[in-house]
Amino acid sequence: MSADTEANAVPARPPEGLVMGKEGMAALVDVLVRRGFTVIGPTARDGAIVLAELRSADELPYGWGVELEAGRYRLRQRADGAAFANAAGPQSWKSFLHPARTREWSSDRVDGELVFTADEAAPPRYAFLGVRPCDLRAIAVQDRVLTGGTYRDACYEGRRSAALLIVVECTEPGATCFCVSMGTGPAAGPRHDLVMTEVAEKDAHRFWVRSGSEEGADILAELPARPADAETRGKARADVTAAADRMGRTMPEADLRELMAGTLDAPRWDDVAGRCLTCGNCTMVCPTCFCTTTEDVTDLTGDHAERWRLWDSCFDLDFSQLHGGPVRASARSRYRQWMTHKLGTWYDQFGSSGCVGCGRCIVWCPVGIDITEEAAALHDWTRAGATAAEPDGG
Q1: CA angle, residues 277, 279, 284, in degrees to nearest 5
Q2: Which helix (H) or strand (E) segment is 142 a member of?
Q3: Among 105, 136, 166, 304, whose CB has the most other CB atoms within 10 angstroms?
Q4: What is the number of H-type helices and E-type strands within the chain?
């Protein structure tokens, strides 16, 4: 049973959780593999913290942190040996739940007739180890988008229902993080199977672990752990609270939905269009962007064909192509579409923001465009306009 079932409502579990050391983390990966999960978690590779299959806990990025800024990402070594003291990398769990390439069907010519075969492979059974609170919210957002309406995405739904979510609360925010502004962290929200907080003190490296589902409680019971002591709980909570005060970015204190709706004609859109390359990097790394297109391919004989679903981006000139040309031909209109949808009209469609404050779009933008800076500029423009309209002495 996964975290999004109703059975996680009131499972039996230790109310204050358990504490385990690094040997417990090693046992956790072993238990997950033994239960038939493919464990996906962070590891240091090719100059970044990436998400990949883990065969053992030794592959976790112990002792690696990151330096982030707009358009910049670098690994750095840490003295404390922490495994999870690094902000979001270039990937999100979207890569595994909503893959960039999915074959939908294939067809073959058999005795002069076309025979179609739907691609209905059993979904992989993933255990996601190290889900950040902002990414936990992103998964909830994609749940709403891809399975919450009349038309459900069967590929996503199968992968999501089989996934086990192990969340790690943030104690080390990056310079581009703004989850506090979006209400998505650094503490974990609901709908997980296990949640842990890392305390990486010298000679006392440990993890405070709590269960959020019956399956999570069963797994926790198999680990070498002891009842959580007050000192560890207090230190873990203090570290998470301190992280909330060290966010590298903030959104303006405004109703972002109203801000987006009221600034469609702001000159700031021309300013950002002069910098934006419309490359679509921001949509590729965003954990909630979900747009796709389809591509049909055939072999040289013409007897075999396949239809593939591929990630697409609203920054692509052909994305809004209609008869006669694209609806959004300018960089200004495409950037405005992305940002106003993410922060504004997403509410109208799905009842929440489409931004979780992970900061990936800032880091992986080649020219360092910062969504928080753009929102602040729009907010300043509206305030300047309101001030100018006030009567003397108002």
Answers
A1: 140
A2: helix 133-147
A3: 136
A4: 14, 16
